[in-house]
Each structure stands twice: as C-alpha cells, then as structure tokens.
Design brief:
Blueprint: E1 9-10, E2 17-18, H1 21-31, H2 38-80
Antiparallel strand pairs: 1-2
Helix pairs in contact: 1-2
InterPro entries: Znf_C2H2_type
Keywords: DNA-binding, Membrane, Transmembrane, Transmembrane helix
Protein name: DNA-binding protein
C-alpha cells in the first residue's frame, strides 16, 4: 500500500518501505510467500516476469558491449603490430 507521507509502499507484513509497487510485490513474493493472497501472488508473478525480461535485455546488451570492446582491442592490436 502506498504511504501517504513519503511516496513509498510499505509491506503489510514487515513494514519495510519500497520505492515502487513492483519492488514491494517482489519482496512479498520472496519473503512472505506463504502469507500472500491471490492478488498479491499475481502481482508478484507479473513483477517477476517483467524483472526477468529486463535482466535478459541487460545481459544481451552487456554481452554486446564486451564483444565490441574485445574486437576493438583486437583491431588496435592488429594495427599496432
């Protein structure tokens, strides 16, 4: 639930504050799995899927950056020697 005074969401179970409802849903799904309602479980699954998609995209970008850096150094080495 959003906290009126600080624009944060607080966990109903342990009162820990979170900046977004997605982060709250992820926390509740990991830390309070046994106590979740059906709506909270669905919110956790949606947030988890979105997080996995974002992580996959980040990994792909990181791999591309590493490949470009590697071939950049390879080209520099080829011109220097």
């Amino acid at each position: 639930m959003p906290d009126d005074t600080t624009n944060t969401c607080r966990c109903e179970y342990c009162k820990t504050p979170f900046p977004t409802t997605d982060r709250l849903a992820l926390h509740q799904g990991v830390e309070h799995e046994a106590q979740l309602t059906a709506d909270e479980r669905a919110a956790f699954e949606d947030a988890y899927d979105a997080e996995q998609e974002a992580l996959g995209l980040f990994r792909l970008k990181a791999l591309l950056a590493l490949v470009l850096v590697y071939f950049g150094f390879l080209m520099v080495y080829g011109f220097v020697t």
